[in-house]
Amino acid sequence: MQHRAAEKAGRAHYSRAGQIIDRGEKCWLVRVFLGRDPKSGKRRYLAKTVHGNRKDAQAVLTELLRKRDRGGLGLQSRESLDAFLDYWLDTVKRHQVEPQTLALYRDYLARYIRPELGHIPLCDVRVGHLQDHAAALRDRGLSRRTAQLAFVPLSDALNRAVIEQRIDLNPARLLDMRGKPSPRRAAALEAPQVKKFIELAEPGRRTACLVFMVATGMRPGELAALRWLDIDVDARVASVSRAIARVRGQKGWRVKEPKSVAGRRVVVLDETALRVLRQQRRWQAEDRLAAGPAWQDLDLVFASEIGTPINVNNLAARHFKKILAAAGIPTTFRIYDLRHTYGTRMIEQGTDAKTVAELMGHSNVALTLGLYTHPNLEMKRKAVARLEETLTGRR
Asked: Does this model's pTM top 0.85?
């Protein structure tokens, strides 16, 4: 009788760390307190049934407490992945990234993630779901790189869910997106193409800015933000310290700072760039006179008819593609590739990679080398000839 009384008294054992509750013959309910729900404020527990003696239940409780204290247990949220992505975009990420980056995240999630995965409860998302979906995206014709980028915001969001203890693990971190990588090469115009492009673009009132980009290697956003006060004609340099940013699908623009210290730099101006600037001064004086009170004096070098920043997308659609066609250059070539042309030609003429990196605002020389060190056949012949001279002494 004393033994039965002792067993009955021990059927429920409570502690601040956790609970072991007797559920019958060799059956125990182990509960671990996980905190309060961030939305409702209600207490949340992880419960697990254990079959065996009380010592077995205690071992399970100890292991669960160890995992909890190391962050391995979380509140299992039954909200949908869609609902959590809304929260992550609107409440968390909106204050952490640039507006154009946020718009890109929304676009990737809306196009590639939400339609097939958004309805799944957040706590039920498994790596198998993601792996199958990644394969389906590739079957639809998406490139490996685009498929990888589609999962970047999802993985970031699921990391946040782990931090907030809504899920235990981020399944996207286990996703295998490996495959044969495509060689990363920067598209660039050959020297004869550059000459033809300049001949066609420089006389144009709205296209001479493209020649300036070829001559300086500036990014399109940096070109749009360049001010006359940034130009020192006597020293033949331009200071790059800002860029114009536009958000996909939205009107308007804003000025942003460079992403890295290397982005703030001084660009040397050659005779082609200076020639463009002299002509631009004359054209802009005419635009200012024609616009009258509508002119907005923002001190921009390359501005619209009323002084506002140029829209690079409009420039590409209305003028750039036409110049490419007239020059016999594939229209798949992008405005940004004019910057790549600058870097490639610099490397090919023997400029050291560190100098090119500084001129282009790269924070890492390895990036410069990876993008632009792709020697053509003539460069290879010259290198072999120099080696032969060294080895044989013959010239």
From this structure: no
| 323-360 core/surface letters (b: 16 or more CB in 10 A; e: else) | bbeebebeeebebebbbbbbbbbbbbeeeebeebbebb
pLDDT tens-digit readout, 269-311 = 999 999 999 999 999 999 999 999 999 999 999 999 999 999 9
Q: Cα(31)–Cα(43) distance, rounded to whole angstroms?
A: 12
Cα–Cα distance, 177 to 189 (Å, whole number): 32
Give domain limits for the chain.
Answer: 2-69, 81-174, 191-378
Distance between CA atoms of residues 345 and 350, nearest Å: 9
**Helix, strand, or coil (residue 375):** coil
CATH superfamily of 81-174: Tyrosine recombinase, N-terminal domain (1.10.150.130)
Residue-by-residue DSSP string for 258-278 = -SSGGGSEEEE--HHHHHHHH
Taking the CA atoms of residue 115, residue 116, residue 117 and residue 121 in that order, the dihedral angle to the nearest 10 degrees is 90
- CATH, domain range 191-378: 1.10.443.10
Of the candidates 243, 195, 230, 233, which has an alpha carbon nearest to the alpha carbon of residue 215?
Answer: 195
- Angle at which helix 127-139 crosses helix 144-163, to 10 degrees, equals 160
